[in-house]
Sequence to fold (120 residues):
Amino acid sequence: MPYIDGFVLAVPTANKQKFIDHARTGDSVFVEYGASRVLECWGDEVPDGKQTDFKRAVQAKDDESVVFSWIEWPDKATRDVGMEKAMKDPRLTPENNPMPFDGMRLIYGGFAPVVELGAR
Fold:
């Protein structure tokens, strides 16, 4: 069963291309270390909720867009080894690949799928 690392973050809308460049550099490292796939999704329809929503979760400002991303790994063991290697990789350091967003407002977690539907 695959394992998923999920992320939600607020990126200044003016930094969209900087974010794409940042993601292309960083995401290739995760794939090199075993990720099956990485998706970076720029908010298109992100409604305001009555109690909570994606924007509030990351304290997005009016001039920011919400990004929803995930890394899919073949399994948790591959993820654990791959993520450990990636976190030590110099290509992911702030000096080599600076984040064009406030990393303090990034939320993330690891998830074990419990239902999977669709063609593979």
